[in-house]
Amino acid sequence: MNPGKEETALRLFSPYQDAMEEIQKLQWRSFYETGRFNKNIDIKFLGTKISARFKQTAQYQVVGVLNSFIENRKNEFVKIIQSYKFKEDKIKLLFINKYGLWFNSMVWMDLE
């Protein structure tokens, strides 16, 4: 890397991180409202010093990390549920987890 590229990378590092932080907040809101992350949320309004292309790249990276985080939690949940003794509830809980229906109140009412 030549000195000019290094300077550019260092100059963009902080604004890129700031954009990722704002995008993460939007993505978590989307997750709690819809049950999933959306890599195509409109982020043009974000007031950052990076280009629209960098913002979109940051959004794809954030969504990738968040999806990975959720999948890891799902895997941990399965390990916990495997030791559960009641077969019928176990099957229902694994179904909810597999299909990401954590926020679907109709599914939870069936468990009661």
Task: Tell me the number of strands.
Answer: 0
Name the helix and strand elements from N-terminus to C-terminus, one letter apiece.
HHHH
Biggest sheet statistics? none
The total tally of domains equals: 1
Low-confidence stretches: none
Strand content: under 5%
Structural class estimated from helices and strands: mainly alpha
Mean pLDDT: 86
Q: What's the number of helices?
A: 4
Span between N and C termini? Answer: 61 Å
Gyration radius, to the nearest Å?
A: 19 Å
The proportion of residues forming helix, as a percent range, comes to over 70%
Global morphology: elongated
Characterize the structure shown.
- This protein has 112 residues and is mainly alpha-helical.
- It has one domain (3-111).
- Helix content is 73%, strand content 0%.
- The chain contains 4 helices and no strands.
- It has helices at residues 3-34, 52-82, 87-98, 105-111.
- Helix 1 crosses helix 2 (52-82) and helix 2 (52-82) runs antiparallel to helix 3 (87-98).
- The radius of gyration is 19 Å and the shape is elongated.
- The mean pLDDT is 86.
Could you provide a short overview of the structure?
The chain has helices at residues 3-34, 52-82, 87-98, 105-111. It is mainly α.
Task: List its traits.
112 residues; mainly alpha; 4 helices; 0% strand
List the topology elements:
Blueprint: H1 3-34, H2 52-82, H3 87-98, H4 105-111
